[in-house]
Amino acid sequence: MAIAVDIDGTIHGPHDARISVFDHGFLFGDGVYEVLRTYRQRPFLYAAHMARLRASAGQIALHCPLTDEAMRGRIDATIAAAAVPGEAYIRILLTRGVGDIVYDPAACPVPTVVIIVKPHLEVSDVARADGVVVALVSVVRNHPDSVNPVIKSNNLLNNALAMQQAYAAGAFEALMQNHRGELCECAQSNLFVVRADAVLTPPVSAGLLVGVTRGFVLALAAGLGLEAGEAVLREADLDSVDEAFLTSTTREIVPVVRIGDHVVGGGRPGPVTRRLVDAFAAAVADRLG
Ligand code: PDD
């Protein structure tokens, strides 16, 4: 079935991959995760993803018990076991572990490490070529003093509720605003806009996940000689932006042609987005070459 799951060092098929109902990841969403993808069967930007996993874990006083090398060994073994025909989707979950139903972290002496490998689903050619519609949802992104969005947390209810509204609207993604009413990020990706040739994305202080792809694309844009950086954006700004796009590990760069009621770039993907899509493909090829 091209799916394999490593649980604490033992690889299972999709139907016998099970964890305890007393795992605090299940009981409380008490854990963190990462999503990677492969290019030519090799995890992309591995060091950056592991650094973020450790940073997320640190934010909730959780320790990742594996070195980067040991984690990589398990990932490679799981990819081999899954025998994915093309590229792989890799989800690493690190949870508090199994313990009594109390919030005390001391109840769970051993964290659980799960690695799920399954086929990577490419964004459709139509979405990449024609752009997608994003719903501007009423669900507010978590306040940074609540479950801080910089933590890639297994507690994904905020994101799931935002996506419920996107699915209901027939949209590809859900764009959330923060507690100040600023545009923040999508349920599964970061937002970028292009205004007067400047490539802009909401600041980390808006309360968002610092996407690995976001950083990669900001560097790519700068490398192309474009002005690139953070800017506070509000819904009203959407009427004056020339282009918009999303970034994430699994989606790379996807043009956006409408956000809520705001048609962007006359409803067509723009030239800067196209340049970045091409530059992204070239940069991936370069790194693999
Ligand atoms: N999502 N913001 C949120 C809320 C995300 O869940 C993601 C990634 C991103 C983009 O981050 P990155 O570029 O590091 O993938 C931004 C992953 C892919 C997921 O949960 O499936």
What does this entry look like structurally?
This protein is α+β, with helices and mostly antiparallel strands and 289 residues long. It folds into 2 domains: 4-119, Aminotransferase class 4, branched-chain amino acid transferase, N-terminal domain (D-amino Acid Aminotransferase, Chain A, domain 1), CATH 3.30.470.10; 125-288, D-amino Acid Aminotransferase, subunit A, domain 2 (D-amino Acid Aminotransferase, Chain A, domain 2), CATH 3.20.10.10. It has 7 helices and 15 strands. Strands 7, 8, 9, 10, 11, 12, 13, 14 and 15 form a 9-stranded mixed sheet that branches. Strand 13 (243-248) and strand 14 (252-259) form a beta hairpin. The two termini are 30 Å apart. The mean pLDDT is 97. The chain binds N-(5'-phosphopyridoxyl)-D-alanine. N-(5'-phosphopyridoxyl)-D-alanine is lined by residues 35, 159, 185, 187-190, 209, 211-214, 247-250.
Looking at this protein, list some descriptive labels.
alpha+beta, D-amino Acid Aminotransferase, Chain A, domain 1, 2 domains, nine-stranded mixed beta sheet, 28% helix, globular, binds N-(5'-phosphopyridoxyl)-D-alanine
Question: Topology as H/E string?
Answer: EEHEEHHEEHEHEEEEHEEEEH
Counted beta strands: 15
Give start-end ranges of low-pLDDT stretches.
none
Instruction: Supply the CATH class of the largest domain.
Output: Alpha Beta
CATH fold-level assignment of the largest domain? D-amino Acid Aminotransferase, Chain A, domain 2
Count of domains: 2
Mean pLDDT across residues: 97
CATH architecture of the largest domain: Alpha-Beta Barrel
